[in-house]
Amino acid sequence: MDWTKPAIISLPKICDPRGNLTFVQDGDQVPFHIARAYWIYDVPAGEERGGHSHHDMRQLLIATSGSFSVNLTDGFVTVTHTLNRPFEGLYIPPGIWRTIDNFASGSVCLSLVSMEYDESDYVREFDEFLALAEKKGPVI
Ligand code: T46
Questions:
Q1: How far apart are CA 111 and CA 134, in angstroms?
Q2: Separation of 25 CA from ligand 1 center, angstroms?
């Protein structure tokens, strides 16, 4: 796996007549130590989340419920992933601008990340992101 690029990761799925179970374990499935989890929910129709990149933070996004679109750009190429399977995660390395939209009603976006919350790790201005991306070169 090339962990410099975004990627869809298949997570373990334990199928059971009582209902299915998926897990992520520190040291497995994701190429980083999981330092924090947060989740986005009750998103009103038409709202967008994200709109930033990170200097160092790596993360895995999972649609634990519902469906939404994750739009990623490295400043050169833009790709959109629709997340709607609780047994798949979208790995996002540092240096990728992301927006999340098209939330279906009742969706939950779980994010497992490599760092504790640190506002200085955010790039929230798109022009600043583009300047950094230009130096770094294509990633996606
Ligand atoms: C990301 C996308 C997918 C905290 O205090 N602690 C936290 O752990 C987080 C994630 C946020 N906050 C505060 C910071 C802001 O005052 O919560 C507020 C909303 O955060 P933000 O506008 O960054 O939310 P999103 O949905 O635009 O972005 C979040 C994550 O911040 C970001 O890392 O990749 O979800």
A1: 27
A2: 23
